[in-house]
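quick q for whoever's on today - can somebody do inverse folding on this one?? i tried earlier but teh output was garbage lol. tokens:
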């Protein structure tokens, strides 16, 4: 990054000295383009891998396709979840002017959860398709815990940005991310509730899992922006 944009925040490493490769010697800040590109790549791969758990058969095709309805539901839930994460991640970096090492590690934590999600999706699909009730409960709890972990990584990200205003665009106050912590915390609690509900009803847990991405999609521009009478 060069020109006026490179001077838009303090500590930018730019092309000076050894920082021209995007490294951050001495804790200096660097542009976010590489982080966004890498994150988009991970999200694209993860959302593509989801479809690999949907299988076609060569006999009694109509019956087998109908029997896989849990797989379709799990696929749609995870596709929606990763899609919403991509939208939220895009909105996040619209408010970030620079990255530092701490933000890089926290972003990797989020991507870890995203990259793992196809696995509990496959487990959930298999359990509801051909497993026993205990299998359905185990799969629902497993999925909900992975989803709760991803919500927790958002909480960590928001807290870090709320306490590192030097990373933010000039029009974004640190208080914005301080408020966003509540949105992430609600996700952690809701997914843990889904895990607990699974013991009584795996299907009810699955409904909660499917509904939560809708909430995060509706609030992708920020929690306060979507609260009547309040401004972000």
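ok took a stab at it. sequence:
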């Amino acid at each position: 990054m060069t020109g006026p944009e490179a001077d838009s925040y303090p500590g930018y490493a730019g092309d000076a000295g050894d920082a021209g490769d995007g490294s951050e010697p001495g804790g200096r800040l660097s542009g976010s383009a590489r982080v966004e590109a890498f994150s988009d790549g991970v999200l694209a791969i993860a959302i593509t891998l989801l479809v690999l758990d949907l299988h076609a058969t060569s006999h009694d095709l109509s019956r087998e396709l109908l029997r896989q309805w849990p797989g379709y539901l799990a696929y749609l839930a995870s596709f929606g979840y990763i899609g919403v994460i991509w939208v939220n991640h895009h909105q996040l970096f619209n408010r970030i002017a620079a990255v530092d090492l701490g933000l890089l590690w926290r972003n990797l934590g989020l991507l870890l959860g995203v990259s793992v999600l196809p696995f509990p999706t496959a487990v959930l699909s298999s359990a509801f398709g051909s497993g026993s009730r205990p299998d359905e409960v185990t799969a629902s709890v497993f999925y909900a815990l992975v989803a709760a972990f991803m919500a927790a990584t958002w909480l960590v990200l928001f807290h870090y940005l709320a306490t590192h205003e030097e990373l933010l665009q000039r029009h974004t106050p640190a208080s914005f991310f301080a408020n966003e912590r509540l949105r992430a915390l609600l996700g952690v609690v809701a997914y843990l509730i889904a895990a607990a509900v699974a013991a009584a009803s795996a299907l009810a847990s699955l409904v909660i899992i499917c509904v939560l991405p809708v909430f995060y999609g509706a609030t992708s521009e920020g929690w306060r922006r979507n609260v009547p009478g309040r401004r972000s």
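fwiw Residues 133-162 form the longest helix (30 residues). also The mean pLDDT is 80. so keep that in mind when u check it
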